[in-house]
Design goal:
Chains A, B: InterPro entries: Bact_HTH_transcr_reg, Chorismate_lyase_/UTRA_dom_sf, Tscrpt_reg_HTH_GntR, UTRA, WH-like_DNA-bd_sf, WH_DNA-bd_sf. Chains A, B: This is GntR family transcriptional regulator. The structure is a homodimer of 248-residue chains. The first copy, chain A, has a six-stranded antiparallel sheet with strand order 4-5-6-9-8-7. Chain A has a two-stranded antiparallel sheet with strand order 1-2. The first copy, chain A, has a two-stranded parallel sheet with strand order 3-10. The N and C termini of chain A lie far apart (61 Å). The first copy, chain A, has eight helices and ten strands. The first copy, chain A, is an alpha+beta fold and 248 residues long. The longest helix of chain A is centred in the N-terminal third of the chain and has 16 residues. In chain A, 31% of the residues are buried. Chain A binds a DNA duplex (19 and 19 nucleotides) through α3.
DNA sequence: TAGTGGTCTAGACCACCCC
DNA sequence: GGGTGGTCTAGACCACTAC
């Protein structure tokens, strides 16, 4: 008698079929090699004796873990793993280069808008004053990686809207306005890809993302920019160096 | 003639039905108030004229965003939002208290193991030497929040296995071994809840998580611990302060 | 025991890519 | 056109909770 092993009893780990399926799929990924093609979803369903729905659930999880990528009309392929980006006050460009990746940045939008109450508070300007909103698509080696939306106070940086796109934003701030970044508060959380995100990143709606929100200050502690970005959760991880608050 | 609006053309944002459903569900959440109950999934499917599968997909997304919680045999409830935790070299306990939450920590496991090559390298001990592995379940106000697995070199901290659980680990390290943390490298990425995670956290398998990996060093730059934790992505966000690498 | 959420199925149809 | 992934459906059965 006695419930022996595998009883899946209460408070124990239950393993759904879609989760167990991942083991089999992972070995297919290993066989395929980086970027190699996997069998189609219908073929996988037949091979493992499950429904296509269950296969897709397992594939979606593996995709979220960065182990494979799916391309709509094309197929499923072994994944490329995650890129590590350092959380620091440096440019995206420098950062990607240090990983041997070729970074590009497309300016999707540069518009002047009127500061809403929340943005006004964050940028320390009066409500309704002019704010420059920049929207960029960051890519590495041609693959879209992140969408970044920045807001800067035009009252502090008159004419900035004419100067973006030329060179690095932080370079422009220093050369034309004598402003240098001192510190920033960066928040990280999970999020899901919106339809707009998915369209730009070649993602699926609802894909797991990392949302970062950066509030940057200059060396005089005045707010300089407020940035919200979403990074593909299957392609990125972030690393930060923490120092002791009580240094001895 | 002429595709007017709503044509959902190429390269534009397509909005799947499950995503659009979220708007309707969000207003139900608002009506319910924090912690309030929502109608059952079958009732929602009928009300919105979609299949239960589609309702569940939308609910799963809202859950990942922290807007609601589901309890197995019980029901679906309006969510509690996210807690912000600072990335710093301080204890979980201090951190939660500063948010007015009552933190508890259950020691699930404290075992001595033999260092695998990767752990040995991280802790700067020889392969095969003794390592203490601690596994904790962190809760706030009674709700499970995170699972934390730490590893410390017993060769540097003899007898440590007898002293854990009494008080804070960092306190013990200081009082008995004269060791104080100097800095740490912390990595953050998304992950999915394993069956074991889900069982401990009262989560669903595959739920979105934040995985942190911390490599801590003492004031002499010697490695002290290596910690891997998973936090519920629907309950947590992290914030870090970044400082300029060129302080001029 | 009745109701709730959790898993799985088989099949339909659409959108996209490539030949 | 034919294949691939993306979305949605209707329904079955299981596991858990509350009564």
């Amino acid at each position: 008698m006695a419930d022996i092993l595998g009883d899946n009893g209460r408070k124990t780990a239950r393993t759904p079929k879609h989760w167990a399926l991942k083991d089999g799929l992972v070995s297919l990924v290993a066989d395929a090699g980086p970027g190699g093609p996997l069998p189609g979803e219908r073929a996988l369903a037949e091979r493992f004796g499950v429904s296509r729905t269950t296969v897709r659930k397992a594939l979606t999880e593996l995709m979220a873990e960065g182990r494979l990528t799916r391309v709509h009309g094309s197929g499923t392929f072994a994944g490329a793993g995650k890129v590590t980006q350092r959380l620091q006050l440096s440019s995206y460009t420098e950062d990607m280069r240090s990983h041997g990746l070729n970074p590009t940045s497309a300016l999707l939008e540069a518009t002047v808008e009127i500061a809403e109450p929340d943005v006004a508070a964050l940028l320390a300007v009066s409500e309704g004053s002019a704010v420059l909103r920049l929207r960029r698509l960051r890519s590495a080696d041609g693959e879209p990686m992140a969408i970044e939306t920045s807001r800067l106070p035009l009252s502090r940086f008159p004419g900035l809207e004419e100067r973006v796109g030329d060179t690095s934003l932080y370079g422009v701030l220093w050369e034309h306005y004598g402003v240098q970044l001192g510190h920033a508060e960066e928040t990280i959380e999970t999020a899901l890809a919106t339809p707009a995100d998915a369209a730009l990143l070649g993602n699926e709606v609802g894909a797991v993302m990392l949302r970062l929100s950066r509030h940057s200050f200059d060396t005089d502690n005045r707010p300089v920019e407020w940035v919200r970005s979403v990074y593909r959760g299957d392609r990125y991880k972030f690393v930060a160096t923490l120092v002791s608050p009580r240094p001895q």
